[in-house]
Specification:
Length: about 160
Amino acid sequence: MRKRSAEKVRRARQRAPSLRFAARTFPALGFAVLIAGCLSAPDQQQRLGSAAERQMTVGTVQREIRAGLTQDEVIAGLGSPNIVTRDGSGRETWVYDKVASEASYSSSQAYGTILVLGGGAAAGAASQSQRTLTVVIKFGADQRVETFSYHATRF
């Protein structure tokens, strides 16, 4: 009987390193996968592109764009254009076309119990809207802003 017990102990010791390895590895691996899947808000914001391109509004256009600005100054204020065209005389027209969708969600819940009886209520609302902004900037032969126009909608 002692031989069987000694044999069991020897086999258990041989398996123990692999079990210890698994016991250490799997939680660490799971934690690494969990952390890799979570992005912080600044990381997610970086993936969206430049702030100037995301936050272009009519106010931004009115504040940043005026006749006489160079192309580099326009890019600094509004970011890169969506469309660039050139007419027969070599003058460029830049078009910025931005579409934004906004969604808002709100919900509330209440639940109460008295002894064994309970009851609850829930309410919620959602709203969604879209807005567009199209900006057209025409440059002269000297590559400075000659004219610009914009059109904004919200629905």
